[in-house]
Amino acid sequence: MDIPRPEHKARRRRRTAIGIAIALAALLGVSAALRAIRPAEPVLELAGLWTGKVQRGPFVRDVRAPGTLEPVRLWWIAAESEGRVRSIPLRPGAPVDVDTVLVELENPRLERESLDAELELTSLEAEYALLQVQLANRKLDLEAAVATARARLREEELRGEVNAELTKSGLAPEIESRVSKVKLEELGKLLVIEEQRLSSCDGSTVAELSAKRARLDQTRALLGLKRAEVESLSVRAGLAGVLEQLDVEVGQRVSAGTNLAKVSDPSELKAVLRVAQGLAPEVQLGLKVSVDLRNGLVSGTVTRISPAVVAGSVEVDVALESELPRGARSRLSVDGTVLLERVEDALYLTRPAAAQVGAELGLFKLVDARSAAVRTQVQLGRLSVNNVEVLGGLAEGDEVVLGDMQTWSAEPRLRLR
Predict the structure, then answer these.
(1) CA dihedral defined by 261, 267, 271, 272, rounded to 10 degrees?
(2) Which residue of 154, 201, 273, 290 has the lowest C-beta tally within 10 Å?
(3) 166 falls in which pLDDT band (50, 70, 90)?
(4) Distance between CA atoms of 251 and 255, rounded to whole angstroms?
(5) Considering only CA atoms, which of 246, 241, 297 is closest in space to residue 271?
């Protein structure tokens, strides 16, 4: 039979405890070693990075905006009369003069009214001429009546003198002399009446002719209006330039006041820039602008800033001060740079991606002879088109990565090769 030996059990327990202790110690050591091991730094190719150096010197603030060349003088042509489009002689892009016909309208009612007014005027002119003849004849009749009355009065005066002599001589009765005196008085009154009628004839003639002439002038003015309406059916440019736009087609009916076409003067152009809404408050009237027409630069001045925001931008008008290069025309796309201010001594850097005014931006600064890049917080100031002012975090001569490094935003350090 087996004899129990307590020392063997104790020995086995000691061995187990020692093994457990050794395993725990090994586990703790491995854990500490793993904690001590740092992850490897990402490695990037330096040649593939966009970098720039911090500089000190004049810092020019400007705003760049796209735009187009627009005519200074733009003329909308509207229909003065209602009508239907009969023909369209020209199409947009054609050169036009003041009297160039753009659209031909037709309106039978206006043409009929013009013809009626013309016929009425002809009739009234004939009536006026007839009235003049009638009034002239009436005056002649009155003059003849006055002459007749004067002759009869003279004749009766002579007869009265003869009768008076005969009465004195007793050769004629006294009654003859008295009758002669009565006739003289009557003929004198008749002469006065006829002379009064003749003197008032001129006044009545003037009144009758004035009334007829007023009606004649009214009809003539109406005819002129109707003729002008008929003439307006031929819609003319009214301005020498280029036909920009035509908004009707043959057969279309238009009402008076409808805009039919747009004409511009290509000899005088301006630049209309579309400045981003966030930059628009910095643009002021009178600022100098450099306009790039693709084949040359032209200087200008800000003359108008639109109060409205359209599609996130504000329209800014620029008056061009220098001669335009060959090929400049309306609707040509341009780029404008508005000079905001010039700071003579400033620390600045080529504008990095995601730069904002007054923002704090994390940039990777090149260190260790460009073999590594360390993430550095940089305080930015004012912005321009190409550069940004540096207020803190960098010194003159520091070189930083300017491209988008969002992928490595959590890394404090990068290795470069």
Answers:
(1) -10
(2) 154
(3) low
(4) 13
(5) 297
Say whether 83 sits in a helix, a strand or coil.
Answer: strand
Burial 354-389 (b: 16+ CB within 10 A, else e): ebeeeeebebbbbeeeeebbebbebebbbbbeebbb
* 150 close to 192: Cβ distance less than 8 angstroms: no
Q: What is the DSSP letter of 331?
A: T
Taken in order 353, 354, 358, 361, the sign of the CA dihedral is: negative
Task: Return the minimum-mean-pLDDT range out of 145-149, 259-263, 309-313.
Answer: 145-149
Which tokens in the block code for residue 384? Answer: 């321009």
What is the tens place of the pLDDT at every residue in 203-230? 788 888 888 888 888 988 998 998 888 8
In 113-208, the DSSP E strands lie at none
Q: Express each pLDDT in 248-283 by its tens digit.
A: 889 889 888 888 898 888 888 899 999 988 888 888
pLDDT of 181 reads 73
Rounded alpha-carbon distances, angstroms, from residue 341 to 59, 72, 81, 169: 8, 28, 54, 131
Whole-number Å distance between alpha carbons of 348 and 342: 13
Q: What's the gap between Cα 239 and its chain centre?
A: 16
Count of all residues that appear for the chain in the document: 417
Q: What is the mean pLDDT of residues 395-399?
A: 89
Q: What is the pLDDT of residue 1?
A: 43
Contacts of 190 (CB under 8 A, 6+ apart): 149, 152, 153
In this prediction, residue 12 has a pLDDT band, given cuts at 50, 70 and 90, of low
Q: Are 77 and 262 in contact (CB under 8 A)?
A: yes
Query: CA–CA separation, 329 vs 68, rounded Å?
Result: 10
| pTM for the whole structure | 0.55
Single out the residue of 314, 326, 417, 343 nearest to residue 373, CA to CA. Answer: 417
Q: Integer distance in angstroms from the first to the last C-alpha of the chain?
A: 79
Q: In this structure, are residues 256 and 77 in contact, taking their beta carbons and an 8 Å threshold?
A: no
**Whole-angstrom distance, CA of residue 373 vs CA of residue 51:** 11
- How is 338-387 classified by DSSP, letter by letter? EEEEEEEEEEEEEPPTT--TT-EEEEEEEETTTTEEEEEEEEEEEE-SSE
Distance CA 96, CA 73 (A): 14
Residues 6+ apart with CB under 8 A from 164: 177, 180
Q: Are residues 293 and 328 in contact, defined by beta-carbon separation less than 8 angstroms?
A: yes
Of 266, 212, 261, 253, nearest in space to 236 by CA: 261
